Amino acid sequence: MTEQLPKKSGTLVNDLTAGVVVFIVAVPLCLGIALASDAPLFSGLLSGIVGGIVVGLLSRSHTSVSGPAAGLTAIVSSQITALGSFQVFLLAVMIAGAMQIAAGIARAGFIAMFVPNSVIKGLLTAIGIILILKQIPHVVGHDDDFEGEMSFAQPDQQNTFTELLSVFQGQWHLGAATIGLLSIVLLVAWSRIKFLKNSPVPAPLVVVLLGLGLGVLFGNWGVGWAIGKSHLVQVPVAKNLSEFRSFLTHPDFSAWLNPQVYMAAITIAIVASLETVLNLEATDRLDPQQRQSPPSRELIAQGAGNMVTGLIGGIPVTSVIVRSSVNINTGGKTKLSTIIHGCLLLASVSLAPQVLNQIPLSCLAAILLATGFKLASPALFKQMYKEGKYQFTPFLITVLAIVFTDLLVGILIGLGVSLSFILYSNVKRPLHRVVENHVGGEVLRIELSNQVSFLNRAAIVQTLDGVPEGGSVLIDARNSSYIDPDVLGLLHEFKNKSAPARGISISLLGFRNRYQLEDEIQYIDYSTHELQERLTADQVLEMLVAGNERFRSGNTLTRHTIRQINATATAQHPLAVVVSCMDSRAPVEMIFDVGVGDVFVVRVAGNVISPEVLASIEYGCVIARAPLVLVMGHTNCGAVTATVDAICGRSFNDAGCSHLKYIVDEVSPSIDGLSHFNAEQATDEDKIAFVNQVSHRNVQHSVEAILQRSPAISEQVRNGQAAVVGAMYDVNTGQLHCQDVDQHVKSQTGEM
């Protein structure tokens, strides 16, 4: 893939402003996650710097931002305790990074393709809800819970809701609350007022500047208004270069033989990789340009980042959805924004930490709160609900699980629920069962699913046991990419033992060569001489009408075309002669869902009866013994429209086609008695209705012409050996409208 670098100043400006905003938001998040992990505060900032610069340079994601992850806090805290020191833990982080690089080289990122859409959308929505619930206390100055804490159960023995409840019990700060609420008002106004929305200055940056200014102002207003240290960003400040270097910690390489180090590394690598690929997938969904990031390359980038962060004293990094969504919402276009945010983190913590420590947490909380509302959109809930319970239930459970536990546990619960739904659906509906009415009789078609596992065995056994004695069954495996050996053994036994013993005709279609089940069609799916002799005109018409219904519903019969070609190569015994218009919207074989050798088709503009057409009909009906002649007209017929234009006053331009008049002459009798129609003055709707009326009469005229001009066909009708039937096909709906055969026979024999 090509590296996405800014190609014009507009992109550079967007990335620069987004990088500044992400940097400002990332500072308290990095500190809070380090605090929750029982790690040194500065380790969180180091991870943010590495996630921005190192991972940003190596990653091919356009919008993802990496840094310390809230989902890893419990693991980091427990592993630091288990390993006995932070330095030994850093060695485990380095080894975990090497494992991630190996996984990326092995292209293990493909796992992202198997994460259900409902879980990804649930992740995004849950993060939005958590941001709203967690940031409300910070917006009003209740900062007992540190920024970056995303779990429901908090280290201070509180939880998300009790922390929220304390706000309504008066535990908030007047000055911080004023800054937070004004920040929200500014963000809302910025998104709704046109000239502000189109401004190149991002609203979050203005919010931070507002917070800084009001913080200085309120410092002169007394204790109730002054913003104290607990309500501000708190970056560790080094008095000199030597003290700054002391913030850096290095791994204890002497512990490299400790098995616990490798167990910790495996745990970190697995969890960090899973969280990365999930967050990466979710971030790509938020990208307005819908660009796709290569997950395996991302694992390599994250692995390199973790090796570096472990070397200098940081905690593990992953792709993080909160900072990524802030990046996208503030206009980040390429990965340059995440690199800028990392560079700003490095510069600020080393050169100007005092400035960062003047930023009120409440204005940053307002930015995150606004991001939360964008992620947790009510429209997304409605969309998922409309997609049905198999999508909505895993989505909703994922949201609730993440909100009431933590990110990692919630995702695993969501994946488990989605997997259970997939298995349930596979067990319940491992196959599609359709009874097909072929010309030779009913055939039960069993269409196997894409993945046929041992879990499907019971359902397949039940279906095969339900095939009646002497029946026909088709097992269709054309859509199956895998069939379990247990199921294959079952099918072999049914084909070789059970089916012959019960007189069942079993046909096979689409099985791969390695399954040793060759394609074999046992039922009759084309017209034969015996079938032609046995069926009456009424029965043939019923078959054609049923075929039209299948065509309209999309449930056409399964046909083995090569077999039909071979079977009809030496003889044909069609069941009907269909006289239709040549209109491209009326393909006869498709309309009636018939196969090779089933019908004669005579197509001519306007379905008119000329000597050549009549000769063709006589051959099919009298010589080849087809019991039904069906004259099929259709709506919006061009030939009829041309005749109406010529007869009813509108000029008719035949473009020099001297033979078109023969079509017009044949259709024109159908306008007799209707010539009062004025084509020039009629509306389009009136003309369409009139043309369709004439088309219907033209079908009747063609039926009468066949009987009047062909004594042989008339004799067939009188003897009950054939019937001539008219029908109209609606090109708008695909539906056929025809008269009953008995009605036709009575009217036709009565006239003769």
Automatic annotation (TrEMBL):
Pfam families per UniProt: Pro_CA, Sulfate_transp
List the EC numbers from the record: 4.2.1.1
> What is the cofactor note?
Binds 1 zinc ion per subunit.
Enzyme class, broadest EC rank? lyase
Q: Which GO terms describe its biological process?
A: transmembrane transport
Keyword Amino-acid biosynthesis recorded: no
Endoplasmic reticulum recorded as keyword: no
Which residues participate in Zn(2+) binding?
A: 581, 583, 634, 637
SLC26A/SulP transporter domain: residues covered = 12-397
Required cofactor names: Zn(2+)
Query: What is the annotated localization of this protein?
Result: Membrane
Record GO terms (molecular function): carbonate dehydratase activity; zinc ion binding
Q: Which UniProt keywords apply?
A: Lyase, Membrane, Metal-binding, Transmembrane, Transmembrane helix, Zinc
An annotated GO cellular component of this protein is: membrane
Q: Where are the transmembrane segments?
A: 12-35, 41-58, 118-136, 172-193, 205-227, 261-278, 299-322, 359-376, 396-424
Primary localization class, coarse: membrane
User: What InterPro entries does the annotation carry?
Assistant: Carbonic_anhydrase, Carbonic_anhydrase_sf, SLC26A/SulP_dom, SLC26A/SulP_fam
The UniProt entry lists membrane topology as: Multi-pass membrane protein
Cleavable signal peptide: none
What is stated as this protein's family in its record? Answer: Belongs to the beta-class carbonic anhydrase family.
What is the recorded name of this protein? Carbonic anhydrase 2
The organism's lineage is:
Bacteria, Pseudomonadati, Planctomycetota, Planctomycetia, Planctomycetales
The gene coding this protein = mtcA2_2
